[in-house]
Amino acid sequence: MTISQAIAGVQADLTHAGVVSVSGVQHWTADQAARFDANVRALQCAQHTSDPVVAMIAGPVTMDLSGTFSQSGSFSVSASSALPVFGLQADASRTKGQTLNVPVQFVPLSALADAEAGREVGYAGELLGQNDAVRQTAAARIEADRIALTAYVELLITKYGSPCPSGSEHPFVGRHHTP
Fold first, then answer.
1. What does the DSSP 8-state code read for residue 140?
2. Which of 5, 6, 4, 12 is nearest to 98 (CA)?
3. Distance CA 71, CA 88 (A)
4. How distant is the alpha carbon of residue 38 from its chain centre?
5. Model confidence band, residue 50 (pLDDT cutoffs 50, 70, 90)
6. Residue 56 per-residue DSSP state
């Protein structure tokens, strides 16, 4: 398995699992907003509450790949006075491994904006420790995203009152679309 195949596989798995980004809510496309809304609605219906517990990726996703291939063999031909002897021996071994580390945090939907802001602060790291205009800009962007996501989530929480559709809705699990 090549590295590009492994990365493509992880991306496909995350897409199939229905992973939706909550970063940059102010710049979401209509499709991103619709997928987030549908997943929140599915969680609300599955947990029978307007403020369900949400699983979020809380840090960097890391992947460790390893693999080995070895091959050995021998070939021999010998003859005796009675009849010729032909021998063939071969061994092949292939090992591959893949480890994916996904830090997951479980938070109530109402706390999702604060958890996401905390994750963004962690990524900003030393940038926020500076005392300059870059720090001010980064901090302002994180706070604006937190406020926007809080307002968006509050709207979804207040909309919960209508009845949930019957059927087995699986939140944040990929849906199969036929083109």
1. H
2. 6
3. 14
4. 17
5. very high
6. E
